[in-house]
UniProtKB/TrEMBL annotation:
SUPFAM superfamilies: Cytochrome c. This is Cytochrome c. Pfam families: Cytochrome_CBB3. Keywords: Heme, Iron, Metal-binding. It comes from the Bacteria. One of its GO terms (molecular function) is electron transfer activity. Residues 101-192 form the Cytochrome c domain.
Length: 194
């Protein structure tokens, strides 16, 4: 009886080891092994970077048709030129109401993204400037390098500057959504009066 049990245990052990070798060993090191529900690995949808026979240029990622606006995207059709800046100054107006919530949000964003250079009160004396970075002109007392007093900068000019940057100042288009940019513009208007 005991001998039988020994053989049975030995037998089970051998079968288990053999089975685990069969299921885990694989010559192809890149293989993921057995695929359960292969649709999760080999999906039917094309990845954006995949070749695609359904389009003439063979790519999956297609440009949107000319003249269309993606859902949730805010257009700003003013080029990164002085002409674009001046045109935006005439045509572009803030989309936000002058509420205390918007000003508060604008202030918080300004403190994070702009004050390191422009200073907390917009005088061009931020901490980065203290370390040798060229000082931006004061919003209330300075002159814009594109002409005119900084205190007279319009909605469109400030929005254009945040979107594209200017010389030593980079673009904030990828950090600030259009709505956030307008909140910052609102706060810059406040700093222009100091
Ligand atoms: C890395 C430092 C730096 C940061 C951060 C920065 N700026 Fe500037 N900014 C500058 C400098 C330098 C100038 C002057 C550029 C010139 O005239 O050559 C400038 C100029 C400007 C002007 C004047 C544009 C004009 O037409 O003359 C505005 C408005 C402005 N910045 C707004 C902002 C706002 C809003 C933010 C935050 C979203 C910001 N800046 C963040 C450095 C910075």
């Amino acid at each position: 009886m005991l001998a039988m049990n020994k053989f049975r245990i030995l037998g089970i052990a051998v079968v288990t080891i053999a089975a685990s070798i069969v299921t885990t060993s694989c010559n192809d090191k890149r293989s993921t092994g057995w695929e359960y529900a292969p649709n999760m690995y080999e999906k039917i949808a094309f990845d954006p970077d995949q070749k695609n026979p359904n389009f003439k240029d063979g790519k999956t990622a297609q440009l949107p048709p000319a003249g269309t606006t993606p859902v949730g995207f805010t257009r700003f059709d003013y080029p990164k030129t002085t002409e674009g800046y001046n045109q935006a100054s005439i045509e572009v107006k803030s989309i936000l109401f002058n509420t205390s919530k918007n000003i508060e949000d604008g202030k918080a964003l300004f403190m994070t993204f702009c004050s390191p250079c422009h200073g907390k009160t917009g005088q061009g004396d931020g901490t980065v400037v203290a370390h040798g970075f060229p000082a931006p002109p004061s919003y209330s007392k300075g002159q814009s390098s594109r002409g005119g007093a900084m205190k007279d900068l319009t909605d469109g000019k400030i929005y254009h500057t945040i979107t594209y940057g200017l010389n030593a100042m980079g673009s904030y288009a990828s950090q600030l959504s259009p709505e956030e940019r307008w909140k910052v513009v609102m706060y810059v208007h406040h700093l222009q009066t100091l």
